[in-house]
């Protein structure tokens, strides 16, 4: 997911350390409680008898927590800088350990081994998913080994390998899956190596227990039963993922491909309101969404995120839709206002949009783009109008958006597409040459005003965006053949005839 970068400061570092310490204690408590689950009625005696094992478990949890922190520090510091994301990773791990422990009491092969990998992949990212999958497998291996339940050594090691393998396969196959049925298919892919592992292990046990003799039906039934649990575990990974994902999306306000489909539907609450109360703005947003999607694809950014951001970038105009040109008919309300007041109304839509998105508990990324898509650009029309009405000097900042400037490439794309769509639509003749000229002017103006100084967009990216906008918009506003004016009529014989008017 494209998120704006957070500066790594001592305060951010301290906050991340405190968050990890708190989650370490919670994870240790969960692990020890699970190990003592069958002896909770005699807590003191159980703790006295197995205290060394519990201390060993707590130390291992501490060690893996430190390794997790170190990995994120060196490989994904932006993840570490966000306390909400840290909590998300630990909550997923805590939930999996609890589920795997109780499901494993029936059969360790019935565990949803790919659940952590799927959730972290979709909610955070691929690198984090790979690491957390390994960590989850090791945590369950630790608990299985220290558990007071009698378990076969081969089962424990087989469960470790299955957990690691299932998660990695899920990550590799689910990276570009965008439908829920696609996730179920991933569960089927996870099932294949799981069944092979179980079959080979059970076959080895059958041969070992029946060395030199015939294999009776009981052992074949046991093998088939364990393979059945393997099927359940593989499918449960997908089913639990689909059931739990919406909860995490809501709790941590995450923007995923599945939630994108919901919030970019024209029936989504804010978009429906925009379509009804500000139809001009809605149509403009749809056009910008098409342009932003094409530009994001051209420079390798997430096209789905760009489309969603474009749909919501102007929702702040719902506050006073009649003051924006695309929603006006013949009468312009700004004719009755001073340029200063008009500028205040216009520039407030960026802040209003951000606040409106937050109040509807939509992802923060959309709110960021809404407030950044004009940066600190001047509102030229009202600045020029004010200059004509005064002999003195004017402070252009009084007629400029408050910012901040775009922090991500997608925010920069929305800024350019927003300006380019309006500029090309205003052209009397929308030829490729004319479109290229005004789009180049839009980009160069923003470069001169240093609107891209806070994001990592490159000159090569801007060149691709410019060409994509030219190709896309001249395709949308293409030339049409003028149809002749004909008047149709039906003759006495029933045939139709056409006559020039």
Describe the structure.
The chain is mainly alpha-helical and 501 residues long. The longest helix is centred in the middle third of the chain and has 35 residues, at 217-251. It has helices at 10-35, 43-75, 77-80, 83-104, 115-123, 126-146, 153-174, 180-209, 217-251, 257-263, 269-277, 279-298, 303-312, 339-359, 364-372, 380-388, 409-425, 432-448, 459-476, and strands spanning 486-490, 496-500. The radius of gyration is 30 Å and the shape is elongated. The chain has 2 domains: 10-254, Arp2/3 complex 21 kDa subunit ARPC3; 258-476, Hypothetical protein af1432 (Orthogonal Bundle).
Query: What can be said about the biggest beta sheet?
Result: 2 strands, antiparallel
The strands making up the biggest β-sheet line up spatially as 1-2
Average pLDDT figure: 86
Helix content: 55-70%
- Could you state the order of secondary-structure elements as H and E? HHHHHHHHHHHHHHHHHHHEE
In the CATH scheme, the class of the largest domain would be Mainly Alpha
- How many helices in DSSP terms? 19
Compute the number of structural domains: 2
Return the CATH topology of the largest domain.
Arp2/3 complex 21 kDa subunit ARPC3
Question: Which range does the strand content fall in?
Answer: under 5%
The Rg value, from CA coordinates, equals 30 Å
Count of extended strands? 2
How far apart lie the N and C ends? 58 Å
Oligomeric form of this entry? Answer: single chain
At a glance:
By secondary structure, the chain is an all-alpha fold.
């Amino acid at each position: 997911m494209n998120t704006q970068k957070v500066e790594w400061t001592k305060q951010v570092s301290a906050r991340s350390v405190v968050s990890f310490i708190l989650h370490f204690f919670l994870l240790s408590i969960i692990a020890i409680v699970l190990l003592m689950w069958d002896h909770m009625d005699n807590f003191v005696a159980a703790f006295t008898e197995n205290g060394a094992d519990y201390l060993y478990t707590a130390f291992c949890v501490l060690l893996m927590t430190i390794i997790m922190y170190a990995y994120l520090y060196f490989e994904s510091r932006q993840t570490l800088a966000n306390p909400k994301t840290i909590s998300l990773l630990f909550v997923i791990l805590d939930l999996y350990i609890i589920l795997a422990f109780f499901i494993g009491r029936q059969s360790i092969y019935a565990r949803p081994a790919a659940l952590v990998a799927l959730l972290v992949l979709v909610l955070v990212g691929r690198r984090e998913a790979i690491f957390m999958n390994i960590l989850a497998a090791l945590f369950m291996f630790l608990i299985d080994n220290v558990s007071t339940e009698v378990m076969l050594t081969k089962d424990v090691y087989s469960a470790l390998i299955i957990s690691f393998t299932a998660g990695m396969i899920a990550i590799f196959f689910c990276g570009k899956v965008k439908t829920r049925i696609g996730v179920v298919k991933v569960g089927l892919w996870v099932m294949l190596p799981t069944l092979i592992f179980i079959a080979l292990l059970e076959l080895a046990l059958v041969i070992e227990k029946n060395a030199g003799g015939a294999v009776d039906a009981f052992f074949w039934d046991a093998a088939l039963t364990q393979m059945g649990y393997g099927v359940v575990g593989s499918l449960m990974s997908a089913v639990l993922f689909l059931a739990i994902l919406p909860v995490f999306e809501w709790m941590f306000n995450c923007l995923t491909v599945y939630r994108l489909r919901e919030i970019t539907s024209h029936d989504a609450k804010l978009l429906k309101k925009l379509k009804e109360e500000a139809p001009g703005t809605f149509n403009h947003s749809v056009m910008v969404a098409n342009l932003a999607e094409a530009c994001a694809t051209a420079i390798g950014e997430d096209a789905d995120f760009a489309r969603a951001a474009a749909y919501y970038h102007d929702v702040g105009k719902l506050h006073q839709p009649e003051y924006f040109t695309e929603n006006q008919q013949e009468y312009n309300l700004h004719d009755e206002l001073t340029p200063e007041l008009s500028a205040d109304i216009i520039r407030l839509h960026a802040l209003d949009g951000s606040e409106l998105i937050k109040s509807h508990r939509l992802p923060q990324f959309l709110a960021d783009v809404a407030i950044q898509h004009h940066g600190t650009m001047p509102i030229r029309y009202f600045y020029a109008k004010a200059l004509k009405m005064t002999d003195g000097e004017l402070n252009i900042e009084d007629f400029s958006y408050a910012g901040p400037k775009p922090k991500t490439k997608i925010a920069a794309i929305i800024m350019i597409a927003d300006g380019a769509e309006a500029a090309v639509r205003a052209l009397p003749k929308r030829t490729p040459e004319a479109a290229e000229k005004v789009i180049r002017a839009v980009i160069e103006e923003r470069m001169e005003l240093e609107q891209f100084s806070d994001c990592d967009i490159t000159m090569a990216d801007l060149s691709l965006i410019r060409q994509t906008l030219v190709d896309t918009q001249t395709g949308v506003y293409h030339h049409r053949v003028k149809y002749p004016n004909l008047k149709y009529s039906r003759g006495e014989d029933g045939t139709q005839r056409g006559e020039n008017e």
